[in-house]
Amino acid sequence: MSTSAIEVSGEKVKVMWDKRLTEIFYDICIKEILKDNTPEWKAWKKLKGEDAGLGWNPIKRTIDVSNDWWESRLKLVHKAKKFRALGIDPEFEGILDQMFMGVVAIGDKAWTHSSSTLRSEFFEDVDNDIPE
Question: Cα(111)–Cα(105) distance, rounded to whole angstroms?
Fold first, then answer.
């Protein structure tokens, strides 16, 4: 049995994970990543794009930008419309970034930065010919 002390909403909480719960958690995460079930995070990242310095409105709980910015961005990212009313909290976004940045999931081929090296069967059906 493993225990961890984590902070949730400013309160330290002791969490106890046995081997079976840990295995279930990992299994769920892997299955969701392999199914590419990260659409909300992807839409949020695409909405924000390369715009630096976007503010956060803690009362509205979304990014603090002009109506013109919203109108122009939502034309490009239709799935992000819901974020105008409720965005992804910056603290939570950082956690999602750690989970999903650098993840590649294509069918039965998947890799994350924590996967170490790629299995050799990953490349079995890859065309290695280099065009001239």
Answer: 6
CA–CA dist 67, 84 (Å, integer)? 10
What percent of the residues of the chain are helix, what percent strand, and what percent coil, each to the nearest 5? 45, 20, 35
pLDDT range class, residue 107, cuts 50, 70, 90: low
Enter the tokens of residue 61: 């709980």
Q: Which residue has the higher pLDDT, 124 or 39?
A: 39
43: which residues sit within 8 A by CB, 6+ positions away? 77, 79, 80, 83
Whole-number Å distance between alpha carbons of 79 and 26: 28
Helix (H) or strand (E) run with residue 64 in it = strand 62-64
User: Which string of b and e fits 96-109 if b means at least 16 CB within 10 Å?
Assistant: beeebeebebeeeb
